[in-house]
Structures are given as structure tokens and as C-alpha cells.
Amino acid sequence: MSFVNPQFFWVLVVPFVIFAFLISTNKERLSRIFDEKVLKRLSATDESMPMIVRNILMLLAILLLIIAMARPVMEKGDKKVEVQGLTLLAALDISGSMRSEDVYPNRLTFAKKKMSALLDAMPSDEIGVVAFAY
Q1: Which candidate in 19, 54, 55, 70 could, as Cys together with 3 as Cys, close a disulfide (CB 3.0–4.6 Å)?
Q2: Could you tell me if residue 85 is left (phi over 0), alpha (psi between -120 and 50 degrees) or otherwise beta?
Q3: Rounded to whole angstroms, how far apart are CA atoms 29 and 36?
Q4: C-alpha closest to that of 110 among 123, 122, 121, 101
Q5: End-to-end CA distance of the chain
Q6: pLDDT of res. 54
Q7: Residue 19: CB atoms within 10 Å
Q8: pLDDT of 30-69, one tens digit each?
């Protein structure tokens, strides 16, 4: 396994420093550093989960996020891919001017028939159709 962006592992230092800081400091010391409003927002009021479990889960979530940002990839070697056929992108005008009847029955119907014939003639090729109107 390798990583596309291994430089993100340097970011791992930050959560461990913050985690160590929060564990080593008590509430009085934190109140000298942070404002009371900030401390209220940082501290959890619900005691349904012990603080140590909550901190470990938060640290684990940050750790997994940083690993995901490093983009792990599994290298299985080079693959030769043989490409057959064409890749085509066709644009089809569907604006009001295509309802003009200078071509039987009208321009839009004629264009759709030609597009259908093109799709039938190229069954193994990749074809994309973009409809636009102005």
C-alpha cells in the first residue's frame, strides 16, 4: 500500500498535541487561556458517555480523516487496456429554431433521426449526447 499525499501525515502531530494538552491541563488552567463562552462550547454537558471514551473516539475520527486525506492506494501493477472504437460527444440543438419546417418534417425530428442512425451505426463505441437550447 502506498499513499498519494503522504505529506498529510505531518498533520497527525496536531491532534496528538491538542489531546495531550487537554489531558494535562485542568479546568482552572484552561479558564485562564480560554474565555468562559469558548469553554462552554468546548466542554460536553451530556455525560451519557465517559469523557475518556469520547476523547478516544474523537481522536480516532481525526486520525482516520487524516489517513483518508493521505489517499491510500493499492498498487497492483500496470494494466494494459486495449481500446477499441471511438469516443464521441454529439451536441443536439433543441431550441425553438429547430422547429422550422425547411427540412421535412422539421429540423429537430430530422436531427433526431440522424442521431439515431449514428448511434445504430456505432454500437461498440462510446457516444455521449448533449442537448442544448439558446
Answers
A1: 70
A2: left
A3: 12
A4: 101
A5: 50
A6: 78
A7: 15
A8: 677 777 787 777 666 666 677 778 778 888 898 899 889 9
Which three three-digit cell numbers place residue 30? 484552561
Contacts of 33 (CB under 8 A, 6+ apart): 25
Residue 129: partners with Cβ closer than 8 Å, 6 or more residues away = 89, 90, 91, 92, 115
Question: What is the spatial distance between Cα 4 and Cα 95, in angstroms, rounded to a whole number?
Answer: 45
Residue whose C-alpha cell reads 498529510 in the numeric block: 8
CA distance 105 to 44: 71
pTM here? 0.40
On whether the CB atoms of residues 93 and 130 are closer than 8 A, the answer is no
- 128: helix, strand or coil: strand
H or E element in which residue 120 lies: helix 107-121
